[in-house]
Amino acid sequence: MRVLIIEDNPDIAANIGDYLEDIGYTVDFAGDGVTGLHLAVVNDFDAIILDLALPGMDGLEVCRKLRQDANKDTPVLMLTARDRLEDKLAGFEKGADDYLVKPFELQEVAARLKVLASRGRRRTKRELTVGDLVYNLDTLSVTRQGQEIHLNPIGLKLLQSLMEASPNVVSRTDLEMEVWGEEMPDSDSLRVHIHTLRSAIDKPFESNLIQTRHGIGYRLVEPQD
């Protein structure tokens, strides 16, 4: 089993790594959040041990970006000295699979990793489907009527938001926050990107999936016969 340890304390990282290697694991290391996120995105690990307090980017942000931006579902065991319930809930909200408070026993770390990795292998592919439109969240591939559709990163984010909410309306503000966060674009940017998305998933086909609710937002809904 291949494990990534993202931990800025070299003694803790070495202790965990030595123990896991002794029982047959392959271990990679990162001492800060930015490096850890990069390794987690470009490599396939069976599990990740993630410290909460990291330089450069804290563990919560690493986990959020891993799940939401990179769409990686590698099991994450979060380590922290914080034992408050709200801290644990924040970790789970960002996508952590398990939570272990320092100090801990190395045997328990290994046992939890084994369970997490087993769960990860049993996971099925994640897909969103609305009518004949399919978005595979693992491969970032989009098809309609079996035809592959190529979208840019913003188009993919908009599509995911609309498909997850379908058939409900998503407000312009919520879509803008999902794509751009606090750095809001000019007023025409969302309209332009929705037009581009429509051109890709609606224009080549007989029926339209994206509907506009003027003054409110947009929704993506399966056409009625």
Output the radius of gyration.
Answer: 21 Å
The CATH topology of the largest domain turns out to be Rossmann fold
Low-confidence stretches: none
Terminal Cα span? 50 Å
The percent of residues in helical segments reads: 40-55%
Shape: elongated
Kindly state the mean pLDDT as a whole number? 88
**Discrete helix count:** 8
The CATH superfamily label of the largest domain reads Response regulator
Name the strands of the widest sheet in spatial order.
2-1-3-4-5
Structural class of the helices, strands and pairings? alpha/beta
As for the number of domains, it is 2
How can the largest sheet be summarized?
5 strands, parallel
Number of strands: 12
Describe this structure in words.
This protein has 225 residues and is α/β, with parallel strands linked by helices. It has 2 domains: 2-122, Response regulator (Rossmann fold, 3-Layer(aba) Sandwich), CATH 3.40.50; 127-220, Orthogonal Bundle (Arc Repressor Mutant, subunit A), CATH 1.10.10.10. Helices cover 42% and strands 22% of the residues. It contains 8 helices and 12 strands. The chain has helices spanning 10-22, 33-42, 59-69, 85-93, 106-122, 153-165, 172-180, 189-201; strands spanning 2-6, 26-30, 47-51, 76-80, 98-101, 127-130, 133-136, 141-144, 147-149, 170-171, 210-213, 217-220. 27% of the residues are buried. The model has no long low-confidence stretch (mean pLDDT 88).
